Amino acid sequence: IGFGTALAQSSQLDSAVKIFNRVIAMNLRKKSKGKGVGQPTEKLTQDTVDVYARRGEVYSAMGNLDAALLDFDAAIAILEGSSSSSGSNANWPRIPLEPYAHLYQSRGVGWYKQAVYTKALPDIQAADRLAPNDYKTWVWMGKVLKEFADTQGCLHALNRSLQLQPSGNKEAIMEKAIALLEVSRWEEAIALIEQVLALDPQHKLVS
After folding, report:
1. Which residues contact 33 (CB under 8 A, 6 or more apart)?
2. pLDDT tens-digit readout, 80-117
3. More confident site: 68 or 9
4. Closest residue by Cα to residue 38 from 76, 97, 81
5. From 4, 105, 127, 162, which residue has the greatest number of CB atoms within 10 Å?
6. Cα(167)–Cα(162) distance, rounded to whole angstroms?
């Protein structure tokens, strides 16, 4: 898994996918051949969730959101099967969900990018429940709620993100400015846009 991750970090995305493919195939073979058919170890469960998640991130970076979402689905199915002791993935050992908040966030972001907001919202909410102090989750919460025309909820989420990460949180500031513009709170929005430009004079909004 580490080698595939290193390839992905060096932008060798196709090679990273090939490595992750091999690891997934190997892990699934180990699962079926373990002590007592279908009784994998806790480490194998964690490794399999991790490799699906990392391959999903690579697919997302390649712009293949359909493949990314399938991998995030596979990883979460294992997680939820192992934690619930029911369902098709129930024979994976139980592992805690909390370390995988980012996985729900990634799937929610994938659904957001595909404009499937009714699926994006539950995943972002799940990520928040598992890691309520992740400022990036709150940015995405704001972005998703904006698509539901929930301006109050959107601003609450973005304010929470800024509370958690008050320094350099350009995305939250910009999203808040956009939300304020949409409800004609011009002066507040302009002040926030000026903050973004002070942080990043080359921000895309000036192009």
Report:
1. none
2. 876 554 445 556 778 889 999 999 999 999 999 999 99
3. 68
4. 81
5. 127
6. 8
Residues written for the chain: 207
- Record the pTM: 0.86
**pLDDT per residue as tens digits for the range 138-175:** 999 999 999 999 999 999 999 999 999 999 899 999 99
Average pLDDT over residues 27-31: 82
Torsion of CA 48, 53, 55, 56, to 10 degrees: 140
The total of other beta-carbon atoms located within 10 Å of residue 166's CB is 10
Token pair recorded at residue 114: 């595909």
Quick one: 45 exposed, middle or buried, by C-beta within 10 A (0-12, 13-18, 19+)? buried
Query: Taken in order 79, 80, 83, 89, is the CA torsion positive or negative?
Result: negative
For residues 116 and 113, what is the distance between their CA atoms, to the nearest angstrom?
A: 8
**SS3 label, residue 205:** helix
Q: How far is CA 158 from CA 2, 26, 113, 180, 207, in A?
A: 34, 42, 19, 11, 24
Q: Are 75 and 53 in contact (CB under 8 A)?
A: yes
Q: Report the 10 Å Cβ neighbour count for 196.
A: 20
